[in-house]
């Protein structure tokens, strides 16, 4: 139940953040890529919360690694732009604290939820055909 609440909460916060972020409306390739990656991370969090096997575990492992790297890049970018200040550290820390549960959910989903992948042996990219 807690994961479901978190998934909905982070979705609402993500939508509100994107609607109020002026950079989102620039439609740069980087911003669109980061938005897509965030959407995938949220989708993985929902899949874990609702215990549904979607796509395959290797895909979610890649999403997890790319999301962590994106978060680290965001930290570097923020420090380069604003320097080390109390506000920038607090802002990054708050954002990071909100996204860490998604990292944990997608980690558990892709690495530790073998029962989901075994019981739902058909994935949406490579369906296994029974002969």
What would you say this structure looks like, in words?
With 131 residues, this protein is an all-alpha fold. It has one domain (2-119). Helices cover 75% and strands 0% of the residues. The radius of gyration is 17 Å and the shape is elongated.
Helix and strand arrangement:
Blueprint: H1 2-20, H2 29-49, H3 57-82, H4 86-111, H5 114-119
Structure summarized in a few sentences:
By secondary structure, this protein is an all-alpha fold.
What's the overall geometry?
A: elongated
Instruction: Give the topology string: H per helix, E per strand.
Output: HHHHH
Domains (count)? 1
The number of strands is 0
Q: Could you tell me the strand content as a percent range?
A: under 5%
**Helix segment tally:** 5
Helical content stands at over 70%
- Terminal Cα separation, in Å? 39 Å
> Largest sheet, if any?
none
Category from helices, strands and their pairing: mainly alpha
Oligomer: single chain
Average pLDDT: 81
Overall radius of gyration: 17 Å
As residue ranges, the low-confidence spans are none
Structural key phrases:
single chain; 131 residues; mainly alpha; 5 helices
């Amino acid at each position: 139940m807690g994961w479901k609440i978190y998934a909905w909460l982070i979705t609402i916060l993500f939508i509100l953040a994107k609607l109020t972020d002026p950079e989102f409306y620039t439609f740069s390739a980087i911003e669109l890529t980061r938005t897509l990656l965030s959407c995938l991370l949220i989708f993985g969090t929902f899949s874990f919360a609702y215990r549904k096997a979607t796509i395959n575990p290797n895909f979610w492992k890649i999403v997890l690694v790319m999301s962590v790297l994106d978060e680290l890049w965001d930290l570097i970018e923020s420090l380069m732009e604003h320097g080390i200040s109390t506000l920038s550290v607090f802002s990054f820390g708050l954002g990071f604290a909100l996204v860490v549960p998604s990292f944990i959910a997608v980690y558990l989903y892709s690495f530790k939820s073998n029962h989901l992948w075994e019981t739902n042996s058909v994935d949406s990219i490579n369906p296994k055909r029974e002969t």
